[in-house]
Amino acid sequence: MNQKHVILSILLAFFACFPVLFDNPYWIGVLNDIWLYAILGLSLNWIVGHTGLFNLGHAAYYAVGAYTAAILATRYNVPILWAMPLSGLAAGLFALIVARPIIHLRGDYLAIVTIGVGEIVRIALENDVFGLTGGSNGIFGIPRPEFFDIRIRRPWQFYYLIGGFLLLTIWFFYRLEQSRFGRALNYIKEDDTAAEGSGIPTAYYKLAAFVIGAVWAGMAGTLFAAKMSTISPGSFNFWESVLVFAIVILGGAGSIPGVILGAFLLVGLPEIFRNFADARMLFFGAAMVLMMIFRNKGLLPPLVRKYAGVVRKRGGLA
Amino acid sequence: MDFFLQQLFNGLAVGGIYALVALGYTMVYGVMKLMNFAHGELFTMGAYLGLTFLGVFAFTELLGPFLGVLVLILLVMGLVALVGVLLERAAYRPLRSSPRLSAIVSALGASIFLQNAIMLVYGARFQVYPHGILPNMPISILGVDIPLLRILLFLVSILMMAGLFFFVQKTRMGTAIRAAAIDQDAARLMGINVDRVIQIVFLIGPALGAAAGVMVGIYYGQINFTMGWVFGLKAFTAAIIGGIGNIPGAMLGGLLLGVLEAMGAAYISTAWKDAIAFAVLILILLVRPRGILGERVADKL
Predict the structure, then answer these.
(1) Which member of A97, A177, A309, B158 lies 3.0 to 4.6 Å from A182 by CB, making a disulfide possible if both were Cys?
(2) Complex-level ipTM beyond the 0.90 threshold
(3) A293 contacts B108? CB cut-off 8 A
(4) Residues 92-121 of A with CB under 8 A from B
(5) What's the whole-model pTM score?
(6) Cβ separation of B278 and A279 shorter than 8 Å?
(7) Which residues on B lie below 8 Å from A107 (Cβ)?
(8) Cβ neighbours of B240 in A, within 8 Å
(9) Which member of A52, A245, A288 has the closest CB to residue B106?
(10) CB–CB of B109 and A289 under 8 A?
């Protein structure tokens, strides 16, 4: 066991015992928010950090997931955790339809179109689209989730539910990073012309990455709906997308620990400095500019990956 | 028919404002290939500064309504132009040689920063422009009564656009801007000071945006710190409709978007008004990404 494993185990043990050690619903609630944003951040990281697609409308897929779960739970009495795969599927399907024609757009064009998609979704929800979304009031009375006959309603119960899903998320994206798919995405991000030339179907891979990120955001949306028991279009506006985007960029695009650190900083710090709550977006903005100037890979950038059998020459990998 | 003409003039007046803001986007994009997300916030800043100066100096009482508003607009344009140059210095110049995506993130950061700075200074609530700064009697055109304010708005934006068009087409500096937009390196080799060109672009764009901000304040009567975001996004849409980087294109795109939106709100639904602009944006990018007047296709997709 090296030093890294020791630190990781200590952190894991600390957060696993947190609700037992500190019986404080407020701070447990803050951590729940952090975990939720970490899950969202990791799902966006797959799109932005690994594939290099500038998605500034991630809240749209989060919203589709949350609304699907809420509608299933309130109208059709589907237990909300059972709705989770379905809401992931709905978000993924929506992403597939939306992203299919725009996936080839370059950097800033893609950014602006995804902003447009996010806004259209929010406006559609506000206008009570299909008569299902409840207009600007949203949907309320979403039943609490049940996990093997345990009704989850206290913050510490949600802590383990959301925290558990975060662990699953970390494991999933870690495995995906190591896969052939993940390597192909990194190639596309570095140079998509060269990737295409090496036989990687870039359009297909980009689309697949986008949809995976959206599916995961949709499932996170289910957790959000279950936790809040009320959802409204206001929770899925442009600034929500920007917040998740900033978590990824400031924490370290393409790096799982970076994104989690980003969630801690951007969601947790404002809770500590509550007196400056109004000014927190001001700091975010300034931090984004400064970060790009002085450390444009984020606080914890991904490490250069080493492959067995590749001899590392002086000066790094060729 | 009367209703249609009403909506048409309404759309043209709002479209003129979109066009003025779109010019700032398109000029910066033309020269730097950067989407200046913070441009909308400079527009908001113009609206707020206009309100402040109106209160402090009482221009309209000293100089009469028309001259007063003119002086006010010029003053605000000058100040916001300075902010624009500072913005370029602080947030964009250090990233000139970085990857494009870093510059986009920095632009987004600058936008968030400015928007919240405005909120902290002026508060989050709507602020109201004094009523009746300019006389607003209806004037009959083609048998339809159009408020004078709407006509003035349209004329002023057309005048500014014409001024800009001649500046870019006829002067030395304008030629330099066009050259830098085509190829920065070649322009540099021809002895053009590209840094200066970028500075000029960051003077003119924000100045036009600020003028649009004051005009929106006078026209709609109330302003909010988030207004720049919606207007900015729509103006960017207008710039893309016309063909980004293309100055006449931004003017055309702005007017077109204004009219489209007015018609959509009138004949389809007001609740979906904002969605119409974004739908047009997506459609244009799918069907004709270079826009109506755009020619340079290479390096765009």
Answers:
(1) A177
(2) no
(3) no
(4) 101-102, 104-109, 111-113, 115-117, 119-120
(5) 0.87
(6) no
(7) 100-101, 104
(8) 112
(9) A288
(10) yes
**B111 at interface of A, judged by CB pairs closer than 8 A:** yes
Partners of residue A296 in chain B, C-beta under 8 Å: 98-99, 102, 105
Assess contact for A252 and A299: CB atoms under 8 A.
yes
| Domains of chain A, CATH where assigned | 27-294 (1.10.3470)
Judge whether B275 is closer than 8 Å to chain A, CB to CB. Answer: yes
Tokens linked to B97: 């040689």
Q: Which of A109, A282, A292 sits opposite B102 (nearest CB)?
A: A292
pLDDT by 10s per residue, chain A, length 318:
688 888 888 888 888 777 777 878 888 888 999 999 999 999 999 999 888 888 999 999 999 999 999 999 888 888 888 889 999 999 999 999 998 888 888 777 888 889 889 989 998 998 877 878 888 888 888 888 877 777 777 777 888 888 989 999 999 999 998 899 998 998 888 888 898 888 889 889 999 999 999 999 999 999 999 888 889 898 898 888 988 998 998 888 888 999 999 998 888 887 777 767 678 788 888 988 998 898 888 888 887 776 666 555 555 444
Please give the single-letter amino acid code of residue B119.
M
**Three-state secondary structure readout of chain A:** CCHHHHHHHHHHHHHHHHHHHCCCHHHHHHHHHHHHHHHHHHHHHHHHHHCCCCCCCCHHHHHHHHHHHHHHHHHCCCCCCCHHHHHHHHHHHHHHHHHHHHCCCCHHHHHHHHHHHHHHHHHHHHCCHHHCCCHHHCEECCCCCEECCEECCCHHHHHHHHHHHHHHHHHHHHHHHHCHHHHHHHHHHHCHHHHHHCCCCHHHHHHHHHHHHHHHHHHHHHHHHHHHCEECHHHHCHHHHHHHHHHHHHHCCCCHHHHHHHHHHHHHHHHHCHHHHHHHHHHHHHHHHHHHHHCCCCCCCCCCCCCCCCCCCCCCCC
